[in-house]
Amino acid sequence: MKAISIARVFAAPNGLALIAFPAFSEIEIYGEMRPALKFFVEPR
């Protein structure tokens, strides 16, 4: 979340508004499938 907030601050002076959508995903860690949270960041 902090990285998304920082990116929004850097993009704003150029007239670019960013929005983020959270989503759940499954990733493999040490051979086991684990739930993960990912964010899609797009221009508004």
Question: If you had to describe this structure to a student in words, what would you say it looks like?
Answer:
The mean pLDDT is 95. Strands 1-2 form a two-stranded antiparallel ribbon. The chain is elongated and about 45 Å long. It has 44 residues and is of the alpha+beta class. Helices cover 23% and strands 55% of the residues. It has a single domain (2-43), classed as Translation Initiation Factor IF3, CATH 3.30.110.
Please describe the topology of this protein:
Blueprint: H1 2-11, E1 18-29, E2 32-43
Antiparallel strand pairs: 1-2
Number of helices: 1
Global mean pLDDT: 95
Principal-axes shape call? elongated
Radius of gyration: 14 Å
DSSP strand count = 2
CATH superfamily: Alba-like domain
Beta-strand proportion: over 45%
Spans of at least 5 consecutive residues whose pLDDT stays below 50 are: none
Order of SSEs? HEE
Q: Provide the spatial order of strands within the biggest beta sheet.
A: 1-2
Main sheet attributes: strand count, strand direction, barrel closure: 2 strands, antiparallel
Range of helix content: 10-25%
GO molecular function, one term: nucleic acid binding
Please sum up the structure shown:
With 44 residues, this protein is of the alpha+beta class. It is built from 1 helix and 2 strands; from the N terminus they run H-E-E. The chain has a single domain (2-43), classed as 2-Layer Sandwich (Translation Initiation Factor IF3).
